[in-house]
Amino acid sequence: MIGFKRILCPTDYSEASIKAFPYAFDLARRFNAEIYFVHVIDCFPLAPDFLAPDFTLEAKSLGFASDLLGDAERNLDRFLSERVPAGLKFHKIVGLGKAAEEILRIAEENKIQVIIIATHGRTGWRHLVFGSVAEKVVRRANVPVLTVSGKTEVTEKETEFAEYHAQ
Q: Above pLDDT 70, what percent of the chain?
């Protein structure tokens, strides 16, 4: 039987990224798994990959990076405290760099067995300029990746599940 004990679920705090949460919650409950929530601080948020392809920022090398990471960790704590149902085992990780690369690095480092990631559904010039983090993760991941469309409507069953387990 295939089982997942370590689930990675990236979030950029957008409504689209939250659409992946019920799937991560459900798999975690079914397999008694731990969820690794990841938020990545992109040092060049508006720069397409061809302008800053391999840029990474080491927290030790720049003084402001530790402040940036501290703020990001507090924001992730607040964000998840309102959304993760009680009883689920989870970890919070903040990465620094290009989102897809950091997600893949963190997945490998933590021996993740499945990645659950939402797509924003960008097309046209936005897709060309900003690319797709989910697409890059799907193409390069060494583990299964479940993609959830950011346009997915949350069903009544998923809403009930989240409300029931939040109590």
A: 69
